[in-house]
Automatic annotation (TrEMBL):
Keywords: Membrane, Transmembrane, Transmembrane helix. It comes from Saccharomonospora marina XMU15. The keyword Transmembrane helix applies. It comes from the Bacteria. This is Major facilitator superfamily (MFS) profile domain-containing protein. The chain crosses the membrane at residues 9-28, 48-65, 77-99, 105-126.
C-alpha cells in the first residue's frame, strides 16, 4: 500500500512536470531570432521548444518507467499531448495558440515520437536470454 501511494505521488509530480513543459514549449513556439530575446538573424524562426520537447518528454517517460510500475509510464506522455492539444486549440481566453506552420508539426513530432519510442522501450518485455 505504501509503494502504491509513493508511485501515485511520483506520477502526479511527473504529470505536473509534463504539463508545465507542454505549456512552456507551446508559448515559446513562436520565438524568432529578431533581436528581442535572441540575437537578430533576419527574423528567422527559432524552434527551441521542439528541442526541449525532444529531450524532456522521453526523459519523463523513462523516469516514470524506472521509478514506478511500467504501466504508469504512459501518463507523462499522455499528459504532455493532452496539455499541448487542449491548450493549443482552446488556449487562454479562447485564443488558438498553435501556429499554422511547420513549427507546430515539429513540436508534436519532436515530443511525441521520442516519447513513444521511450515508452515502447520501457514496456518491452525483458528476456533473460543472451546470444
Amino acid at each position: 500500500m505504501r509503494e502504491r501511494t509513493a508511485d501515485r505521488l511520483l506520477i502526479a509530480v511527473l504529470a505536473a512536470d509534463a504539463a508545465l513543459l507542454a505549456v512552456l514549449e507551446l508559448f515559446y513556439l513562436p520565438l524568432r531570432l529578431d533581436g528581442l530575446l535572441l540575437p537578430r538573424l533576419q527574423d528567422a524562426p527559432a524552434p527551441i521548444s521542439a528541442v526541449v520537447a525532444a529531450v524532456t518528454t522521453p526523459l519523463l517517460v523513462v523516469v516514470a518507467a524506472r521509478l514506478t510500475s511500467r504501466r504508469l509510464a504512459t501518463v507523462p506522455l499522455l499528459v504532455w499531448l493532452l496539455t499541448l492539444l487542449v491548450l493549443g486549440v482552446l488556449g487562454p481566453g479562447g485564443d488558438v495558440v498553435l501556429l499554422a506552420d511547420w513549427r507546430t508539426l515539429l513540436l508534436l513530432a519532436a515530443g511525441a515520437l521520442p516519447g513513444a519510442l521511450a515508452l515502447g522501450g520501457s514496456l518491452a518485455p525483458v528476456t533473460g536470454r543472451s546470444r
